[in-house]
Amino acid sequence: MNAEPDSTSKREGVTPDRLLHSGAEGEFNAEDLVLASGRDVNPQNLAWAERRLAAKGKAALDELLP
């Protein structure tokens, strides 16, 4: 039995592994951080995200994503 998942199988509603990524590999902004946190995009939350990005950099998004 093969321990690796079958990359050719097409299970409905399941995102293939090759498409999964956190987004932290590329550029992101305060709005992305707000959305990843599950908060509404508004001036107060954008200010929170900007402070968090300034303090933690890319780790700010990594900490929110599984």
Concise synopsis of the structure shown:
The chain is an all-alpha fold and 66 residues long.
What does this 3D model show about the protein?
- The chain is an all-alpha fold and 66 residues long.
- The chain has a domain at 26-62.
- 38% of the residues lie in helices and 0% in strands.
- The protein has 3 helices and no strands.
- It has helices at 30-36, 43-56, 59-62.
- Helix 1 (30-36) packs across helix 2 (43-56).
- The longest helix is centred in the last third of the chain and has 14 residues, at 43-56.
- The radius of gyration is 16 Å and the shape is elongated.
- The protein starts with 29 loop residues before the first helix and ends with a helix.
- Residues 7-20 have a biased composition (Basic and acidic residues).
- Residues 1-22 are annotated as: Disordered.
Features:
66 residues, mainly alpha
Strand content: under 5%
What's the helix-strand series? Answer: HHH
Instruction: Flag low-confidence runs.
Output: none
Radius of gyration using CA atoms only: 16 Å
Structural class estimated from helices and strands: mainly alpha
> What is the number of helices?
3
Question: What's the N-to-C terminus distance?
Answer: 29 Å
